[in-house]
């Protein structure tokens, strides 16, 4: 069996920093996220806004280990951290009063990862 590694330096650097933060700050959420990001690209999460709208409440902090897609609508304010966002999804989240942030920003602002909900 051939082992295939990620070649994107952004993702490999992110995985490395997630693992380091997990060990240093004793926050298992970052190690779990690193394992999810290590999966193959085919198994990477792609979440539509309609799913976020159904499974979240107002002012919630959500983490998606993949890409946010713009299908559907969102009618409440949430803070979303993800690997990437489609332009339409980012626009709809910000129009609803929410915020789109990178995973590294979330790691810096919330080192223990408390109150974060992972959605795939």
Derived from helix and strand composition plus strand pairing, the structural class reads alpha/beta
Estimated radius of gyration: 14 Å
The end-to-end span amounts to 27 Å
| Parts with pLDDT < 50 across at least 5 consecutive residues | none
Major β-sheet annotation: 5 strands, parallel
The chain-level mean pLDDT equals 93
Shape type: globular
Q: Beta-strand level of the residues, as a percent range?
A: 15-25%
Descriptive report:
- This protein has 120 residues and is α/β, with parallel strands linked by helices.
- The chain has one domain (9-118): Ribosomal Protein L15, Chain: K, domain 2.
- Helix content is 42%, strand content 24%.
- It has helices at 9-25, 28-38, 49-55, 87-95, 103-109; strands at residues 45-48, 60-69, 78-85, 99-102, 116-118.
- Strands 1, 2, 3, 4 and 5 form a five-stranded parallel sheet that branches.
- Helix 1 runs antiparallel to helix 2.
- The model has no long low-confidence stretch (mean pLDDT 93).
Output the keywords:
five-stranded parallel β-sheet; 120 residues; Ribosomal Protein L15, Chain: K, domain 2; globular; alpha/beta
What's the quick description here?
The chain is 42% helix and 24% strand. It contains 5 helices and 5 strands, in the order ααβαββαβαβ.
Per-chain topology:
Elements: H1 9-25, H2 28-38, E1 45-48, H3 49-55, E2 60-69, E3 78-85, H4 87-95, E4 99-102, H5 103-109, E5 116-118
Parallel strand pairs: 1-2, 2-3, 2-5, 3-4
